[in-house]
Amino acid sequence: MTRSLVSVPPTARRGEIVDIRAMIAHPMETGYRMGPNGAEIPRHIITRLVCTYGGAEVFSAEFFPAVSANPFVAFSLIAAESGTVAFEWTDDEGQTETASAEIVVS
Amino acid sequence: MTERTIREPTIREPIALEPAGGPSLGRRAVLAGGVGILVMALPLRALARPSLEQAVAGFTGGAPVNAGRVRLTVPPLVENGNAVGVTVEVESPMSEAAFVRRIGLFNEKNPQADVAIFRLGPRNGRARISTRIRLATSQTVLAVAELSDGTYWSSEANVIVTLAACIEDLS
Amino acid sequence: MRRPAARLLVLAPLALALLAGAAQAGDIAPHERRSGSTFMAPETQAMQADDTGNPGMLWVLQGAGLWEQKAGASGRSCADCHGSAASLRGVAARYPAFDAASGKPIDLSGRIRQCRSERQGATPWPRESDEQLALTTFVAHQSRGLPITPPAEPRLDPYRETGRQLFTSRMGQLDLSCANCHDDNWNQRLAGSAVTQAHPTGYPLYRLEWQGIGSLQRRLRNCMIGVRAEPFAAGSEEFIALELYLMQRAAGMSMETPGVRP
Q1: Between B1, B13, B17, which is nearest C190 by CB?
Q2: Strand, coil or helix: B141
Q3: Which CATH superfamily is domain C32-262 in?
C-alpha cells in the first residue's frame, strides 16, 4: 500500500524551476532507543533516496538516524521535457519503495 | 522566611503557571519529573561519536572549508527536537560549468554527527534543499557544500531545543 | 508568591510550576476560544497547513486505500456501502454519537471498529494501530474546515455531564483536573510548552513528540499520566464521556484533521 507522498507540479513551462517534495511513512528508528523492557530497539532507517527524471538521476540523498521519522525532502528541478519524475527509497534491510509523478512541459 | 508551619494536607495551592518568558521554575520542575532521565540515556553512547570537525573532515577528505556562500535556515528555538525543519541554500549558478555537487548536514551533540548528504547537479536549477532532522538537545547544526570546482563552503546555526512538558510514559 | 523550596520537594513536578497567584477560573469565554494550532510556532503551523509536508497526510492516504479495500466474511469494502468519501463530509464533526443498539455513546474509532466486525465480518483493528488510525484520520479529514457540531441528542446529555465532571475533577498524585490547566491557565506556559485550551480540533493528529499519528484518547491518556493518574482504559465509557464534553466545549470550532502538534 502506498505510504509515500510526492509533490511534482503536473505542468510547467520549459526551463522553469519547479519545487519537488517527497515524504514517506517510516519510523526511522535510530537504534539509540530502548523499549519498555529495557532492550535496545534495533536500528531501522531509510538510508537512501534517489530521484530520476526522464530516467536520469537528478538528485539523491543519504540519510542517517538524525533524519526525522517519516522523512521529508524538498528540492528543485529544471522542467526540461515532459516525463516521469520517479523516487526510490531504500532502507537498511534492503527494502525499497517507489513513487512517481508525471510532469507535462510545454 | 523565619517561621515554618506544617501545611494542612487539605489546603490546595491556587494554580498559576509561570508566564511566558518568566523564570524557568517550570522547566526545572519538569526535569525533576523524568524528562531529564530520558535525555540522559543518550550521552553514554555519544561518547564514542566523532567530533563535528572529524565528521566534516570525513565529508571533505580533509580539504579546507571556507565560511560563506551557504545559507542555513533553521529556527533558533524549536518546540520539539524530533522534527526540526532545515533549509540549505548555496550561492551557485547551477550551470554545467559551476554547480553544487553535494550538501552535507552535520550536528554537534547527537549520538552520531552525520545527518544527511544530498547530491545535486546542474539539472536542479537551484541549489536549495529542505528536510526535517532530529536534534537530541540544544546544539550547533552545520551545513557544508561541495562545489564542482572542488572547494568547500559552510554555514552553521545554533538551535535551542525545548523539552516537551508532557511525556507519554514514565516507564 | 513563592514558597520555601524545601517544601516543594515533596510535591510532584507539575505542581511545582503552579505556585504564583490564581488566574481566572471557570469556562473559557466563547470569543477567547483558540485551537491548539494557534499556540504553535510558525514552523509547526506551516507543517500542518501544507498538505505536501503534513506527515498526517500519509495516514489519510493509507486510509483512502483501506476505504476501498474489501474485508471480512462480507467481502465488502467501506466504499461498497458508503460510497465515495464525500458522503462522509461532516460525519466526524458530529461524533461521538449515540449508539441505539447498545444504548450508549460511541466514538468515531469505536464506530469504525463496530462496522468492521458487524457489517464487514472482519476482526477490528486495535485502536492505536496504523490501520485503525489511518481509516479514522481519513474519515475525519473529510470534515476538515467544517464546524464541530455535537448532535442535539438528549440521550447523550448525561454522558456529557459525566465528561464535564471528569474534566473538572482533580486526579492523580498531582491532584490536578483538566480544567486547572486548560480552563484556568491556558494562557500560561509549562516550561517551554504552551498550555493550550485542549480543544479536540485536529484529531487524529500527528504529534512530533509521538513521531506519528495518534488518537484523542491517546492524548488524554498522556495527560493522565502527566498528572500521575491511572489512565482510563482505551475505548472506556469515561474516555468517551470526556470526548463528548470536549466536543461540546469546542462546538463551532473548525475541524483540522490531520492536525500537527509539537
Answers
A1: B17
A2: strand
A3: Cytochrome c-like domain (1.10.760.10)
Structural element, H or E, at residue B129: strand B128-133
Residues of B in contact with C188 (CB under 8 A): 16-20
Assigned CATH for B43-161: 2.60.40.2470
Whether residue B120 and residue A59 make contact (CB cut-off 8 A), yes or no, is yes
Q: Mark yes or no for CB contact B107/A66 under 8 Å.
A: yes
- Walk along chain C (262 residues) and give the pLDDT tens digit of each residue: 344 443 333 334 444 444 333 444 578 998 999 999 999 999 999 999 999 999 999 999 999 999 999 999 999 999 999 999 889 999 999 999 999 999 999 999 999 999 999 999 999 999 999 999 999 999 999 999 999 999 999 999 999 999 999 999 999 999 999 999 999 999 999 888 899 999 999 999 999 999 999 999 999 999 999 999 999 999 999 999 999 999 999 999 999 999 999 9
Long-range contacts of C41-49 (CB under 8 A, 24+ apart): C41/B75, C41/B77, C41/B78, C41/B79, C41/C262, C43/B75, C43/B78, C43/B85, C44/B79, C44/B80, C44/C208, C44/C260, C44/C261, C44/C262, C46/B85, C47/B83, C47/B85, C47/C260, C48/C202, C48/C256, C48/C258, C48/C259, C48/C260
> Which chains contact C through at least 3 pairs of Cβ atoms less than 8 Å apart?
A, B
Tell the CATH superfamily of the A4-105 domain: Immunoglobulins (2.60.40.10)
The residues of C annotated with a catalytic role in the active site are 223
Structure ipTM:
0.96
With H, G, I as helix, E, B as strand and everything else as coil, classify residue A75.
strand
Which site among B166, B169, B170 would you substitute to test the C interface, given the most C Cβ atoms closer than 10 Å to its Cβ? B166
Q: Where are the domains of chain A?
A: 4-105
Are C96 and A44 within 8 A, CB to CB?
Answer: no
Which residues does B contribute to its contact with C (CB < 8 Å)? 1, 4, 7, 12-20, 22, 24-34, 75, 77-80, 82-83, 85, 162-170
Q: Is B37 on the interface with A (CB under 8 A)?
A: no
Domain ranges of chain B: 43-161
What pLDDT, in 10s, does the model give residues A13-70?
A: 999 999 999 999 999 999 999 888 889 999 999 999 999 999 999 999 999 999 999 9
Which residue out of B31, B38, B79, B86 would a mutagenesis test of the C interface target, given it has the greatest number of C Cβ atoms within 10 Å? Answer: B79
The reply to whether residue C262 touches residue B80, judged by beta carbons under 8 angstroms, is yes
